[in-house]
Design goal:
single chain; mainly beta; Neuraminidase
């Protein structure tokens, strides 16, 4: 629909990384015309490798740190970043779960982890991709 928010994790040729939050603009027939330039959010802990909307005004981000670990944070589009407990594995995909306080993470070794109640729990193995319906 008009006003749909889109977030992109961008890395420039000179290795600068940031998150770009834009809004889809549509014509009178609801055909997408453009993605407007939106808000630019600078990552704090490293290079963003996965991002997922958590609420209409907040997103959760996996960042690869300089030490090679996966940091996990919640970024508000209008406020400060909140550091969340680091995943026990290297994440490659991140998705919002049914509860707005929960997230799914797919690891680089095919494990699915659920972040809920401020902790991580492995819920599946042997997985190559995830796409939960919220």
């Amino acid at each position: 629909p008009e006003g749909t928010r889109v977030i992109q994790s961008i890395q420039t040729e000179d290795a600068e990384s940031f998150l770009d939050v834009g809004v889809v603009l549509r014509d009178a027939n609801s055909i997408p015309l453009a993605l407007n330039k939106g808000l630019r959010i600078e990552p704090v802990l490293g290079t963003p490798i996965a991002v997922a909307w958590q609420e209409p005004a907040s997103m959760r981000v996996l960042e690869r740190t300089a030490s090679g670990l996966t940091a996990f944070s919640e970024y508000s589009i209008s406020g400060p970043r909140t550091q969340l407990p680091m995943p026990p594995t290297m994440g490659i995909e991140l998705h919002a779960a049914a509860s707005s306080a929960s997230s799914y993470l797919l690891s680089d070794v095919g494990e699915v982890w659920l972040f809920s109640a401020n902790s991580w729990r492995r819920i599946a193995t042997g997985v190559s991709s995830i796409s939960p319906l919220r």
